[in-house]
Description:
The complex is a heterodimer of chains A (247) and B (547). Chain A is an all-alpha fold. In chain A, 68% of the residues lie in helices and 0% in strands. In chain A, helix 1 (2-11) runs antiparallel to helix 2, helix 2 packs antiparallel against helix 3 and helix 3 (40-60) packs antiparallel against helix 4. The longest helix of chain A is centred in the middle third of the chain and has 27 residues, at 101-127. Chain B has a two-stranded antiparallel ribbon with strand order 1-2. In chain B, helix 13 runs parallel beside helix 19 (472-498). Chain B has one domain. In chain B, a hairpin with a 4-residue loop joins strand 1 (128-130) and strand 2. The interface between A and B is large, with 60 and 84 residues.
Amino acid sequence: MTLLAQVAPTAGGTAEVVVFWVFAVIALGSAIAVISLRNVVHGAVMLVLNFLSIGGLFLTLESAFLSVIQVLVYGGAIMVLFLFVIMLLGVDRDDLLQADLRTRVLAIAGGALLAGAVLFAFVGPYTSEASVCGPDAPAPGPGEVACAGLAEAYDEDDGAGARFLGRSLFTTYTYPFELAALLLTVATIGAVILARRRDLEPEDEDLADLDAAAADDLDGDDLDGASGAAAERHVAGDGPGTTERGG
Amino acid sequence: MVLAQDATTLDVPDVAWSSFAPELLLTAAALVLLLVAIARGRQLLVAAPTGVVAVGLGVWLVSTDVVVPGAVAIVWGLALPAAVFAFPHRGSLVQAWGAGVALAGALVLTGWQFVTVLGDGAGGMTPQSALAGALANDGIAFFTRITVYLTALIVLPLGYGYLRDRRINRAEVEPLLLLAVVGMAALGTANDLITLFVALEVLSLALYVLTGLARRDRRSQEASLKYFVMGAVASAILLYGMALMYVATGSLSLPTIGSVVALAGTNQLVSALGLALVTVGIGFKVALVPFHLWTPDVYQGAPTNITAFMAAATKAAGFAAVLRLYLVAFPGLQGLWAPVLAVLAAASMLYGAYVALVQRDLKRMLAYSSITHAGYATIGVVAVTDAGLSGTLWYLLTYAVSTLGAFGCVIAIERRRRGEVALVDLRGLGRTSPAVAGILALCLLSLAGMPPTAGFVGKFVVFQAGIEAGWTWLVVIGVLSSIVAAFFYLRIAGVMFLETADDDRPLPASSLGLTTGIAVSATLVVFLGVQPQAFLHLADAAAALVR
């Protein structure tokens, strides 16, 4: 809290402070609402609000690209996934919200630990008067990387990051970028294969002959099931039984 | 708002198309074959225009003096409509032929790359870096491409009849196989961490789906899920390790990491941590003990032709990444990783051989054997010499052809068994089907490392490199595990030729594709064992890397 409030006045005017406080209050309020609302869907919607206001906070820090990504990825894609899961499990399942004492204690301890770690990591070095990232920060000594190059990167980039990212993607990282497109293609094909109820079998004429041949055969169409083979083996009396070696 | 601001000029990178021409061809072929599959009944409507475009592109390439890629494009552009025309109601044959011609074209293009770019005219290699350093065209890339394309080319006919018999010959199989091959070749050429990771994911994702192809077979489904979950965890660990490497060195490019990582002032703790996590992640992909837990179940559950492909090609691609990571990016930390990898190799060789001894299922036994062979291949890596590097590349090729032949015979036997093949099912096979039994015995001898097969030369080269680099204890363990392994390989041969079966019917006649695939693998096993000089010379030259 204080760290952003401290930075804001030096970076801009009063409007920025107002915007910051508005988003900060919405972010905290919606975060509390997420864990206190009884209706799971309401909680999810509050989480969207939280993501949006965090995106707004990124905007006040002049990080337009991160802000857009926050809204698109978290507010869009990830929340849709959450809602899918909620809908699949059933909206009226309020036993999802029941937590026994042990879970509560664990959750509170985990939350406290995370908050402590964040405060410990950021409040000290980044918020004090002699902050390593503040306007009067001393130049980092040898071996120190804190905030090095940040100002130069901002100057070069209009403070948005999008230009630098785009430039990198289309020059240095063209090849992995195109490979990533291929990765999405593979994922799509795979999803279609796994989700299709009826398989897209090639229209082969000889599959009909195969069916006729299979009908005379030992276990017919049951090629995929091991049951036929196992039964046959059992009759034969040699029952080998795969030796399982723990993986 | 930011994007619309002044249009400063962008230095358009110089795209060296030739450096990834084989992958380009395979990607295009995969996407076109997918379209052909979708256009059920009207396949010529897709194939004919594509053929025209491909032939036009080829003619243009030839007219600009890029003769070989042009010729490949023309051949493929003619082959696809021809296949559609020749097999009007045999969709899967069109797919298989389209993919096969594309893979053969990729092999030709790899040879063309060697002649025009990579080779120095005297049989040596001049490594070349392309696409802003994302891709390295060097010995590892060349050998990985050869092994992976050859494997896929043999797997296509091996699997064609098998997939049809099991009624899982879906139209998407060949495109997915081609895309997995592209991922593997890209992994073999990747020279920065991002490319390496994305390529690894391309091949892994395709293999997860191919493993679960048999949807009515619970074991295939279990294998797919297991592979996916454990693979995702391993990928996450690998990615975290890569992030730490970036933190420590400030670079994603492997050669840059290699030059920075050993400097004083680089955070050694973070580098070591990143190295450890990368080792875990990549150890999973190549199935080194103790990261092998997925291997037996996945190899056993997956359709057999996919298992053969995984064993031969994934191992080659995974070890390409291992070689590049450890020899290009981390040679400065050799004192840190070489002993660890040596222990992993020793554990893999001993554990794989010991557990394979008690297996009754042939596919499961071959899975444990693949773990053992990952150990042998690692000997060449820990040697950290040029001889070790070329030894590992060569070993992977010999392992690929041997294991392809062995799995091909398993497919042939599965035609009778209709399910898993246990050791007892092999009784009397030497009498009823001497050809299949003989070739299976030959391939197993090669896996055991007996002369005059390819496996013997492979083991010999790797062990020699290990001894020269001072890893005598590791090589001793390798020889010991070879002796144990030879016992169970020979036991299979004994079961086939010395015992008699209740069921003395010969195996059902295998399809033309299966026969071809098995015959080609067996020929290569013998040829690489008897006449290895040409390839060994290439492997020696392959030690030239982009550093």
